[in-house]
Here is the input.
Amino acid sequence: MEAFFKNILLRIYQTFIFEKRYRFFLEGLGNTLLLTLSSFFIGTLFAIVLCAMAKSANKTLNKTAKIITSLFVEVPSMVLLMIMVYIIFGHSVLPVMLVVIFGLSLKAGAYLSEIFYAAINTVSPGEIEAASTLGMSKWQAFRLVMLPQAVQTALPLYKNQFIVTMQETSIVGYLAIIDLTRASSIVSSRTMDAFFGIIAVTIIYFVIGFIAKTFFDLIGKKKHIEQEVNA
Here is the structure.
């Protein structure tokens, strides 16, 4: 039994301590968080624009939004990033990290626009008409009637998309960016032992996802409480 624990401690030492290999995981964690948060925030802004275009009465804007959304939803993330890095920005001086953030933002934005569009469509037109009858402007009807209901509907899918965006960052190692998955791969290639590296990465991904889910759940509860108070 003593030999067993010594072997475990040795493997942990070789994975994280020897040659300061923990720095790979710290760098990977930093890049994963940067990619996830940046892509999701920019993707949300892009999604709002796409959703507004899709809801527009202008047929050209409407069709353009649908084409853009379909394109980025249906093209695999790895293929999209390779097109961005090696073709569109292949001769650019932009850092690969920025190009990847841009690509992931387009991907996240396409999915989020569909979530926003579906959430807005769940609001009954009768409620908007009733708001107009009460003398509300279009902006007031949107802010006070449509938006709270749409947010409540979209929030569960919105937080799931955050997790999906985080998971999609695991492919950027193929583009010479050290994320968590790539960090584990680098260390495993040196130790010839993938176990503890993979376990550590799995736990970190879980913790990030758990924190994000808890944060969005708190927002949802706050919205629900505010609606009850206002009612």
